[in-house]
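Need a sequence for this fold. Nothing fancy.
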Protein backbone atom coordinates (compact mmCIF):
# COMPACT_ATOMS: atom_id res chain seq x y z
CA UNK A 1 0.00 0.00 0.00
CA UNK A 2 1.35 3.43 -0.86
CA UNK A 3 2.22 5.57 2.14
CA UNK A 4 1.72 9.32 2.36
CA UNK A 5 4.52 11.27 0.66
CA UNK A 6 5.63 12.80 3.96
CA UNK A 7 6.70 9.31 5.11
CA UNK A 8 8.76 8.54 2.01
CA UNK A 9 11.45 10.97 3.21
CA UNK A 10 11.30 10.12 6.87
CA UNK A 11 14.20 8.11 8.27
CA UNK A 12 14.27 6.64 11.78
CA UNK A 13 15.72 9.16 14.27
CA UNK A 14 19.08 8.68 16.00
CA UNK A 15 17.20 7.54 19.06
CA UNK A 16 15.00 4.98 17.27
CA UNK A 17 18.04 3.46 15.52
CA UNK A 18 19.72 2.86 18.87
CA UNK A 19 16.53 1.40 20.39
CA UNK A 20 16.14 -0.94 17.41
CA UNK A 21 19.75 -2.14 17.66
CA UNK A 22 19.43 -2.74 21.42
CA UNK A 23 16.27 -4.81 20.89
CA UNK A 24 18.33 -7.31 18.89
CA UNK A 25 21.04 -7.62 21.56
CA UNK A 26 19.73 -9.51 24.61
CA UNK A 27 22.81 -8.95 26.81
CA UNK A 28 22.92 -5.14 26.71
CA UNK A 29 23.10 -3.12 29.91
CA UNK A 30 20.53 -0.63 28.75
CA UNK A 31 20.96 2.92 30.00
CA UNK A 32 18.83 4.39 27.24
CA UNK A 33 15.39 3.89 28.76
CA UNK A 34 13.55 6.98 29.98
CA UNK A 35 11.18 5.30 32.40
CA UNK A 36 11.48 4.28 36.05
CA UNK A 37 12.50 0.66 36.55
CA UNK A 38 10.10 0.33 39.51
CA UNK A 39 6.69 -1.25 38.94
CA UNK A 40 3.51 0.58 39.98
CA UNK A 41 2.77 0.22 43.71
CA UNK A 42 0.24 -2.60 44.37
CA UNK A 43 -2.30 -0.35 46.13
CA UNK A 44 -2.40 1.87 43.01
CA UNK A 45 -3.08 -1.22 40.90
CA UNK A 46 -5.87 -2.16 43.34
CA UNK A 47 -7.41 1.30 42.93
CA UNK A 48 -7.60 0.73 39.16
CA UNK A 49 -9.14 -2.73 39.64
CA UNK A 50 -11.62 -1.33 42.18
CA UNK A 51 -12.74 1.19 39.55
CA UNK A 52 -13.49 -1.69 37.17
CA UNK A 53 -15.46 -3.61 39.81
CA UNK A 54 -17.44 -0.49 40.72
CA UNK A 55 -18.62 -0.20 37.13
CA UNK A 56 -16.41 2.59 35.79
CA UNK A 57 -16.33 0.76 32.51
CA UNK A 58 -18.18 3.33 30.37
CA UNK A 59 -16.93 6.29 28.38
CA UNK A 60 -15.39 8.86 30.71
CA UNK A 61 -16.13 12.59 30.78
CA UNK A 62 -14.11 14.21 27.99
CA UNK A 63 -12.12 16.46 30.32
CA UNK A 64 -11.37 13.56 32.66
CA UNK A 65 -13.05 12.54 35.94
CA UNK A 66 -13.51 15.44 38.34
CA UNK A 67 -11.84 13.25 40.98
CA UNK A 68 -8.69 12.89 38.85
CA UNK A 69 -8.58 16.60 38.01
CA UNK A 70 -9.07 17.48 41.68
CA UNK A 71 -6.24 15.11 42.62
CA UNK A 72 -3.92 16.82 40.10
CA UNK A 73 -4.83 20.25 41.54
CA UNK A 74 -4.28 19.08 45.12
CA UNK A 75 -0.94 17.43 44.22
CA UNK A 76 0.45 20.61 42.63
CA UNK A 77 -0.81 22.86 45.39
CA UNK A 78 0.69 20.58 48.05
CA UNK A 79 4.05 20.08 46.33
CA UNK A 80 4.64 23.33 44.49
CA UNK A 81 2.14 25.87 45.84
CA UNK A 82 0.55 26.09 42.39
CA UNK A 83 -3.18 26.79 42.58
CA UNK A 84 -5.65 25.85 39.86
CA UNK A 85 -9.29 24.81 39.78
CA UNK A 86 -10.44 21.52 38.23
CA UNK A 87 -11.97 23.37 35.27
CA UNK A 88 -8.46 24.53 34.36
CA UNK A 89 -7.26 20.90 33.96
CA UNK A 90 -7.64 18.32 31.22
CA UNK A 91 -6.57 14.67 31.57
CA UNK A 92 -4.62 13.32 28.59
CA UNK A 93 -3.22 10.08 27.19
CA UNK A 94 0.14 10.45 28.92
CA UNK A 95 2.14 13.66 29.05
CA UNK A 96 3.04 13.04 25.44
CA UNK A 97 -0.46 13.85 24.22
CA UNK A 98 -0.37 17.35 25.68
CA UNK A 99 1.88 19.16 23.16
CA UNK A 100 -0.21 17.68 20.35
CA UNK A 101 -3.43 19.02 21.86
CA UNK A 102 -1.78 22.32 22.81
CA UNK A 103 -0.40 23.04 19.35
CA UNK A 104 -3.67 21.90 17.77
CA UNK A 105 -5.51 24.42 19.94
CA UNK A 106 -3.09 27.33 19.57
CA UNK A 107 -1.20 27.26 16.25
CA UNK A 108 -2.11 28.77 12.91
CA UNK A 109 -0.21 27.54 9.85
CA UNK A 110 3.36 28.88 9.85
CA UNK A 111 3.37 29.94 13.51
CA UNK A 112 6.80 29.49 15.06
CA UNK A 113 7.58 27.75 18.33
CA UNK A 114 10.92 28.13 20.07
CA UNK A 115 12.38 24.75 20.89
CA UNK A 116 15.23 24.80 23.38
CA UNK A 117 18.06 22.39 22.58
CA UNK A 118 18.75 19.71 23.63
CA UNK A 119 15.05 18.85 23.53
CA UNK A 120 12.72 15.90 24.05
CA UNK A 121 12.53 14.80 20.42
CA UNK A 122 8.76 14.27 19.92
CA UNK A 123 8.13 18.01 20.36
CA UNK A 124 9.51 18.75 16.91
CA UNK A 125 7.14 16.41 15.05
CA UNK A 126 4.27 17.60 17.25
CA UNK A 127 4.85 21.22 16.21
CA UNK A 128 5.16 20.31 12.53
CA UNK A 129 2.16 17.95 12.69
CA UNK A 130 0.01 20.89 13.77
CA UNK A 131 1.19 23.26 11.03
CA UNK A 132 3.80 25.03 13.14
CA UNK A 133 7.48 25.65 12.52
CA UNK A 134 10.01 24.65 15.21
CA UNK A 135 12.81 27.16 15.70
CA UNK A 136 15.71 25.50 17.49
CA UNK A 137 17.49 27.60 20.13
CA UNK A 138 21.05 26.62 20.95
CA UNK A 139 22.11 26.41 24.59
CA UNK A 140 25.31 25.82 26.50
CA UNK A 141 26.14 23.58 29.42
CA UNK A 142 27.53 26.49 31.48
CA UNK A 143 24.03 28.06 31.36
CA UNK A 144 22.42 24.77 32.58
CA UNK A 145 21.19 24.27 29.01
CA UNK A 146 18.72 27.10 29.62
CA UNK A 147 18.33 29.63 26.80
CA UNK A 148 20.17 32.95 26.85
CA UNK A 149 17.79 35.86 26.34
CA UNK A 150 20.01 37.28 23.54
CA UNK A 151 19.51 34.00 21.66
CA UNK A 152 15.74 34.15 22.13
CA UNK A 153 15.74 37.74 20.89
CA UNK A 154 17.80 36.82 17.84
CA UNK A 155 15.45 33.93 17.00
CA UNK A 156 12.23 35.87 17.54
CA UNK A 157 10.13 36.84 14.51
CA UNK A 158 6.61 38.29 14.19
CA UNK A 159 5.48 34.68 13.62
CA UNK A 160 6.77 33.48 16.99
CA UNK A 161 3.83 32.32 19.09
CA UNK A 162 5.31 30.27 21.87
CA UNK A 163 8.18 28.51 23.56
CA UNK A 164 8.56 25.06 25.12
CA UNK A 165 10.36 24.84 28.45
CA UNK A 166 11.32 21.53 30.03
CA UNK A 167 13.01 21.77 33.42
CA UNK A 168 14.13 19.37 34.84
CA UNK A 169 15.16 18.59 31.31
CA UNK A 170 15.19 15.47 29.24
CA UNK A 171 17.95 14.78 28.15
CA UNK A 172 20.05 17.25 30.14
CA UNK A 173 18.89 16.46 33.69
CA UNK A 174 19.47 20.16 34.39
CA UNK A 175 17.16 22.78 35.83
CA UNK A 176 16.97 26.49 35.08
CA UNK A 177 17.57 28.96 37.90
CA UNK A 178 14.81 31.26 39.13
CA UNK A 179 16.70 34.20 37.60
CA UNK A 180 16.84 32.47 34.20
CA UNK A 181 13.14 31.63 34.36
CA UNK A 182 12.24 35.17 35.41
CA UNK A 183 14.16 36.55 32.43
CA UNK A 184 12.30 34.17 30.12
CA UNK A 185 9.05 35.28 31.78
CA UNK A 186 9.79 38.97 31.04
CA UNK A 187 10.67 38.08 27.46
CA UNK A 188 7.47 36.09 26.80
CA UNK A 189 5.45 38.88 28.37
CA UNK A 190 7.13 41.50 26.19
CA UNK A 191 6.52 39.41 23.05
CA UNK A 192 3.07 38.19 24.10
CA UNK A 193 3.94 34.50 23.73
CA UNK A 194 2.52 31.35 25.29
CA UNK A 195 4.66 28.87 27.19
CA UNK A 196 4.32 25.11 27.20
CA UNK A 197 6.14 24.16 30.38
CA UNK A 198 6.72 20.40 30.51
CA UNK A 199 7.38 19.72 34.19
CA UNK A 200 6.89 15.96 34.15
CA UNK A 201 10.10 15.43 36.18
CA UNK A 202 8.97 17.81 38.98
CA UNK A 203 9.26 15.10 41.64
CA UNK A 204 12.91 14.27 40.92
CA UNK A 205 15.10 17.13 42.08
CA UNK A 206 18.50 16.62 43.69
CA UNK A 207 21.40 18.36 45.39
CA UNK A 208 19.23 20.45 47.67
CA UNK A 209 17.55 22.17 44.72
CA UNK A 210 13.82 22.85 44.59
CA UNK A 211 11.48 22.54 41.63
CA UNK A 212 10.40 25.90 40.27
CA UNK A 213 6.95 25.86 38.77
CA UNK A 214 7.09 28.31 35.85
CA UNK A 215 3.41 29.22 36.14
CA UNK A 216 4.04 30.48 39.71
CA UNK A 217 6.12 33.38 38.37
CA UNK A 218 3.85 36.44 38.57
CA UNK A 219 1.89 36.99 35.36
CA UNK A 220 2.79 33.57 33.91
CA UNK A 221 -0.19 31.40 34.85
CA UNK A 222 -2.33 33.22 32.25
CA UNK A 223 0.09 32.40 29.43
CA UNK A 224 1.33 28.96 30.51
CA UNK A 225 0.22 25.45 29.75
CA UNK A 226 1.73 23.41 32.57
CA UNK A 227 2.13 19.80 31.44
CA UNK A 228 2.82 16.84 33.69
CA UNK A 229 1.64 13.33 34.46
CA UNK A 230 2.04 10.30 36.70
CA UNK A 231 4.36 8.29 34.43
CA UNK A 232 7.60 9.29 36.13
CA UNK A 233 6.53 10.45 39.60
CA UNK A 234 4.34 7.40 40.28
CA UNK A 235 6.01 4.82 38.00
CA UNK A 236 2.88 4.55 35.86
CA UNK A 237 4.19 4.86 32.29
CA UNK A 238 1.98 2.04 31.01
CA UNK A 239 -1.21 3.55 32.45
CA UNK A 240 -0.91 6.53 30.07
CA UNK A 241 -2.12 9.37 32.25
CA UNK A 242 -0.97 12.93 31.81
CA UNK A 243 -2.64 16.23 32.58
CA UNK A 244 -2.34 19.88 31.70
CA UNK A 245 -3.22 23.08 33.54
CA UNK A 246 -4.10 25.98 31.25
CA UNK A 247 -6.54 28.89 30.89
CA UNK A 248 -10.13 27.64 30.55
CA UNK A 249 -10.62 28.56 26.87
CA UNK A 250 -7.47 26.60 25.97
CA UNK A 251 -8.55 23.62 28.10
CA UNK A 252 -11.99 23.60 26.43
CA UNK A 253 -10.45 23.55 22.96
CA UNK A 254 -7.93 20.88 23.92
CA UNK A 255 -10.86 18.76 25.18
CA UNK A 256 -12.66 19.14 21.85
CA UNK A 257 -9.52 18.01 20.02
CA UNK A 258 -8.94 15.17 22.45
CA UNK A 259 -12.55 14.02 22.09
CA UNK A 260 -12.27 13.47 18.34
CA UNK A 261 -9.04 11.53 18.86
CA UNK A 262 -9.77 9.44 21.93
CA UNK A 263 -13.35 9.82 23.30
CA UNK A 264 -11.72 10.37 26.66
CA UNK A 265 -8.94 8.75 28.64
CA UNK A 266 -9.00 5.20 30.06
CA UNK A 267 -11.34 5.19 33.08
CA UNK A 268 -9.45 2.67 35.21
CA UNK A 269 -6.14 4.45 34.69
CA UNK A 270 -7.79 7.70 35.74
CA UNK A 271 -9.09 6.07 38.92
CA UNK A 272 -5.63 4.65 39.68
CA UNK A 273 -3.95 8.00 38.96
CA UNK A 274 -6.36 9.89 41.23
CA UNK A 275 -5.59 7.46 44.04
CA UNK A 276 -1.86 7.71 43.30
CA UNK A 277 -1.74 11.51 43.35
CA UNK A 278 -3.69 11.59 46.63
CA UNK A 279 -1.82 8.96 48.62
CA UNK A 280 1.80 8.36 47.58
CA UNK A 281 3.84 11.38 48.64
CA UNK A 282 6.20 9.33 50.81
CA UNK A 283 6.83 6.75 48.05
CA UNK A 284 7.50 9.52 45.54
CA UNK A 285 10.07 10.99 47.93
CA UNK A 286 11.67 7.59 48.64
CA UNK A 287 12.14 6.86 44.94
CA UNK A 288 13.56 10.31 44.26
CA UNK A 289 16.11 9.55 46.98
CA UNK A 290 17.03 6.27 45.28
CA UNK A 291 17.44 8.01 41.92
CA UNK A 292 19.53 10.71 43.60
CA UNK A 293 21.88 8.10 45.10
CA UNK A 294 22.24 6.32 41.77
CA UNK A 295 22.96 9.58 39.95
CA UNK A 296 25.63 10.59 42.45
CA UNK A 297 27.36 7.21 42.21
CA UNK A 298 27.27 7.15 38.40
CA UNK A 299 28.44 10.77 38.16
CA UNK A 300 31.47 9.95 40.34
CA UNK A 301 32.34 6.98 38.13
CA UNK A 302 31.96 9.04 34.94
CA UNK A 303 34.19 11.82 36.24
CA UNK A 304 36.93 9.26 36.90
CA UNK A 305 36.87 8.09 33.27
CA UNK A 306 39.36 9.19 30.66
CA UNK A 307 37.90 11.88 28.40
CA UNK A 308 34.57 12.20 30.26
CA UNK A 309 33.25 15.13 32.31
CA UNK A 310 29.90 15.00 34.04
CA UNK A 311 27.99 17.81 35.73
CA UNK A 312 26.07 16.96 38.90
CA UNK A 313 22.55 15.77 38.36
CA UNK A 314 19.97 18.37 39.28
CA UNK A 315 16.78 16.65 38.25
CA UNK A 316 15.01 13.89 36.30
CA UNK A 317 16.97 10.62 36.16
CA UNK A 318 19.36 11.55 33.37
CA UNK A 319 23.06 12.33 33.36
CA UNK A 320 24.40 14.11 30.31
CA UNK A 321 28.19 13.76 30.36
CA UNK A 322 30.50 15.57 27.97
CA UNK A 323 32.46 12.93 26.06
CA UNK A 324 34.44 15.21 23.73
CA UNK A 325 37.66 14.30 25.58
CA UNK A 326 37.45 10.80 24.11
CA UNK A 327 37.88 12.25 20.60
CA UNK A 328 34.58 10.64 19.52
CA UNK A 329 31.38 12.28 18.38
CA UNK A 330 28.17 11.47 20.26
CA UNK A 331 27.08 8.98 17.60
CA UNK A 332 30.52 7.34 17.39
CA UNK A 333 30.70 6.99 21.16
CA UNK A 334 27.19 5.52 21.35
CA UNK A 335 27.61 2.96 18.58
CA UNK A 336 31.13 1.87 19.53
CA UNK A 337 30.12 1.54 23.19
CA UNK A 338 27.16 -0.59 22.15
CA UNK A 339 29.24 -2.77 19.78
CA UNK A 340 32.30 -3.18 21.98
CA UNK A 341 30.95 -3.02 25.54
CA UNK A 342 27.27 -3.88 25.10
CA UNK A 343 26.19 -0.80 27.03
CA UNK A 344 23.31 1.20 25.55
CA UNK A 345 23.20 5.01 25.86
CA UNK A 346 21.74 7.70 23.60
CA UNK A 347 23.75 10.18 21.54
CA UNK A 348 23.24 13.78 22.70
CA UNK A 349 23.04 14.84 19.06
CA UNK A 350 19.70 13.00 18.76
CA UNK A 351 18.24 15.84 20.86
CA UNK A 352 19.40 18.72 18.66
CA UNK A 353 22.79 20.18 17.75
CA UNK A 354 23.56 21.51 21.22
CA UNK A 355 23.63 17.88 22.37
CA UNK A 356 26.63 17.06 20.18
CA UNK A 357 29.56 16.00 22.35
CA UNK A 358 27.28 14.54 25.03
CA UNK A 359 25.57 11.23 25.70
CA UNK A 360 22.41 10.60 27.72
CA UNK A 361 22.55 8.06 30.51
CA UNK A 362 19.29 7.08 32.20
CA UNK A 363 19.86 5.87 35.76
CA UNK A 364 16.92 3.51 35.48
CA UNK A 365 18.74 0.28 36.35
CA UNK A 366 19.63 -1.12 39.78
CA UNK A 367 22.78 0.25 41.42
CA UNK A 368 24.48 -3.09 40.76
CA UNK A 369 23.79 -2.96 37.03
CA UNK A 370 24.65 0.73 36.85
CA UNK A 371 28.04 -0.04 38.40
CA UNK A 372 28.55 -2.98 36.01
CA UNK A 373 27.83 -0.71 33.06
CA UNK A 374 30.25 1.90 34.47
CA UNK A 375 32.98 -0.78 34.70
CA UNK A 376 32.45 -1.53 31.02
CA UNK A 377 32.33 2.11 30.01
CA UNK A 378 35.52 2.80 31.95
CA UNK A 379 37.34 0.06 30.05
CA UNK A 380 35.94 1.41 26.80
CA UNK A 381 37.17 4.95 27.52
CA UNK A 382 40.58 3.70 28.65
CA UNK A 383 41.11 2.10 25.25
CA UNK A 384 40.50 5.35 23.29
N1 LIG B 1 7.88 14.93 28.48
C1 LIG B 1 9.14 14.53 28.69
C2 LIG B 1 10.20 15.57 28.83
C3 LIG B 1 9.46 13.17 28.76
O1 LIG B 1 10.73 12.80 28.96
C4 LIG B 1 8.43 12.22 28.60
C5 LIG B 1 8.70 10.73 28.65
N2 LIG B 1 9.93 10.30 28.25
C6 LIG B 1 7.12 12.69 28.39
C7 LIG B 1 6.89 14.04 28.33
C8 LIG B 1 5.96 11.78 28.16
O2 LIG B 1 5.62 11.01 29.24
P1 LIG B 1 4.29 10.16 29.29
O3 LIG B 1 3.58 10.28 27.99
O4 LIG B 1 4.70 8.77 29.60
O5 LIG B 1 3.48 10.76 30.40
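Here you go.
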Amino acid sequence: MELAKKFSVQKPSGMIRVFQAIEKMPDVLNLSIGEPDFVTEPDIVDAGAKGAKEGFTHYPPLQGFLETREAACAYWERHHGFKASPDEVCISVGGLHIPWLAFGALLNPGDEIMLIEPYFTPYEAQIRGNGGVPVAIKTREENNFAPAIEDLRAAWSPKTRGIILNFPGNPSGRIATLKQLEEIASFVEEKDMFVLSDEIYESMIFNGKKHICFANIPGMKERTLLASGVSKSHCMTGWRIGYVFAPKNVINTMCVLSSVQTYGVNTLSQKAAAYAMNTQDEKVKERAKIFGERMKAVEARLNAMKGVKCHSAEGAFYLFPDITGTGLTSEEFTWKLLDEAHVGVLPGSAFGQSGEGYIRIACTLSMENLMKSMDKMEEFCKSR
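For context: The chain has two domains: 5-40+282-382, 58-279.
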